[in-house]
Design goal:
Blueprint (H helix, E strand, L loop, with lengths): L1 H16 L10 H15 L4 E11 L2 H14 L5 E6 L2 E9 L2 H11 L7 E8 L6
Antiparallel strand pairs: 1-3, 1-4, 2-3
């Protein structure tokens, strides 16, 4: 008896699902807010993200040489050096998530065992790898 009732109930549910229709109407105020938010994001000059720092040194030529060697070996990755007194720092990659930066660190672990992941709030949106 229970099986029969379950079968009838199941058939009733399947018959009713074929006729249901959902209609969504969006308030124009919400649409304009979403568009404004999209435009603000497009105009951002920099975003927060993650990079790897390969080295930090007071010797600028050492950092520049390391950057050239890095780009010869990994031309598809971005590399930039920054000066924060008294150190020149070589940062590579640009990722939205720490997990992506960790994958790069794992890939470079033999060539650059002292590299570490750092948060960077000055990443240009077009730099994201």
């Amino acid at each position: 008896m229970k099986q029969f009732l379950l079968l009838i109930f199941g058939c009733f549910l399947m018959a009713n699902t074929g006729f249901s229709q959902i209609s969504i109407s969006e308030d124009p105020v919400i649409s304009s807010m979403i568009e404004r938010h999209k435009q603000e994001n497009r105009n951002k000059q920099s975003i927060k993200g993650w990079r790897l720092q390969l080295t930090a040194s007071t010797d600028r030529t050492k950092v520049m040489t390391m950057k050239e060697r890095f780009l010869d070996k990994y031309p598809h990755l971005s590399a930039e050096w920054v000066y924060k007194a008294p150190y020149y720092k070589l940062n590579v990659g640009a990722y939205k998530t720490k997990l992506e930066a960790t994958a790069l660190k794992h890939k470079l672990r033999y060539d650059y065992p002292n590299a570490y992941i750092m948060l960077d709030s000055n990443i240009k949106p077009h730099e994201i790898d």
